Amino acid sequence: MIKSANENMDDWIPLSTARNMSQTEYDVIIVGSGAGGGAALWRLCQQWKNSGRRIGLIESGPLLLPTHGRNMATMNEERFTKYFENPLHTEYIGKSWPEYPGAKMIKALGGRTLQWYMVSPRLNPEDFHTWPITYDELVPYYLTAEQMMNVTSKYAAGSSIQQILLERLRSNGFPGATDTPLAADLEPTRFGRVHSNVFFSSIDFLAYALNTRPFDLAVRTQAVRVLIDKGKTAGVEVMTPDFKTHSIRAKTVILSCGTWETPRLLLHSGIPGRAIGHYLTNHMKVFADVKGARSQFGEAAGVASLWVPVPGNKWGILYGFGTSPFDYFWYAYEQKPLLSELKFRMVSAGPVEQRYENHVFLEPGTEDEYGIPRLQVSFSHSNQDRARIPELFRTMRAAVHGMGLDFDKEPWLIEPGEDNHECGTCRIGLDPDTSATNPYGQIHGIPGLYVADSSVIRLTGPANPMLTTVALALRTADYISQTV
Questions:
Q1: What's the mean pLDDT in 120-141?
Q2: pLDDT of 167-213, one tens digit each?
Q3: Residue 51, in any domain of the structure
Q4: Position 4 in a domain
Q5: CATH number of the domain that 455 lies in?
Q6: pLDDT for residue 96
Q7: Which of 8, 183, 418, 435 would give a disulfide with 414, using CB separation of 3.0 to 4.6 Å?
Q8: Is the residue at 204 inside a domain?
Q9: Is residue 410 in a domain?
Q10: Looking at residue 410, what is its pLDDT?
Q11: Which residues constitute the domain of residue 245?
Q12: Does residue 37 contact residue 202 with C-beta atoms inside 8 Å?
């Protein structure tokens, strides 16, 4: 039997168009499909699965990959790097930012989650001392995020390298050394339930949502302005690659474009807020490539995946991977040589001080093809930051010495932006003068306008921000589902 045209799918996920979406009035429109946007979408679909609520998602980028790049058998470290360093896929916005040269963006369905390193710790309870919410309030959402993202600390289970290095660290000044929590599904396929999509990306959230209830999705659709009517959110104005403009109406808009694009869109839309774009923060990081003789480890060598809290230092952390930095994330199709020397990548990290002066702003006269001025950044390390940098180096040297390893080359401080952990430009808080959103992610004074991405995070601890981004997005979606 020949299928009619409307029974076919043209892509690996059902798509709509901006034109078609402009014919519908949505209860919620989500702008951006990364970790925050994907989490908010899934949660709203789950909460509203038996309702007639209309949910839409728009993404400025194309369909790039249907999963995390490391789940693809055609990839190895070299091909993966070449693919994501391609300017067609990654925009290196830091090239014009002398003070933040490492900044970049991936514009595609799934965003940065297509290529992140899956490290998924929680912030510590004491890290919430300046937050408008407590750690206990976020715990249920951390638990849900960890469940949905398959966070596990057993990636290196059974590895003699892992066990030996942990024992050495614990005996030499790092008693809390443990296994890195990674967003990796390690379950085998059984009872007909497939577990082959190992590493998490936001595409997983879209899949969960799609199999819960319908939603509309348009890619290559650039949001150019948030629409406000009589002080309330009315939708978004978007532009397609042919530069046609459409207005998509919605009672609620969730911006999940990331720490760079969300404030850019808010500023271009004229949304008031003294803190919008300010309090940019990230992690200072010292990197080191270290090495050790293969003969010092047991027969079942395996890999290392280390997470090392620094005793007496709540703001610092050290973590590491091996062998031969990051090559163990790949399918084993390539023949692995027996190495006489193993290499590891170690990272010593801590957050920079949150300061109003560190901010992004629109630079007049630099409009892109959609008519939106490009961002410029003002960023510097404070006296406190500069005083902490030597401590990062001391921690690195102490840990490497404690593990009985040697430096392959001298450790180095990476440039701002290379950590990919930028946060804070729409941070949550109670005071509109020092925060962009309220504790539920709503822009102060604008009913129906929310932010659910890394820009809301007060990066007050050394933990990677991805898990916290997802947890906060789930919390925001719950609030919306109960109030809209």
A1: 97
A2: 999 999 999 999 999 999 999 998 998 898 999 999 999 999 999 99
A3: yes
A4: no
A5: 3.50.50.60
A6: 94
A7: 418
A8: yes
A9: yes
A10: 95
A11: 11-483
A12: yes
How many domains does the chain divide into? 1
Residue 3 pLDDT > 70, yes or no? no
Nearest to 185 by CA among 207, 162, 163: 207
User: What is the C-alpha to C-alpha distance for residues 65 and 72, in angstroms, rounded to an integer?
Assistant: 9
Distance CA 92, CA 163 (A): 39
What are the tens digits of pLDDT across the range 246-267? 999 999 999 999 999 999 999 9
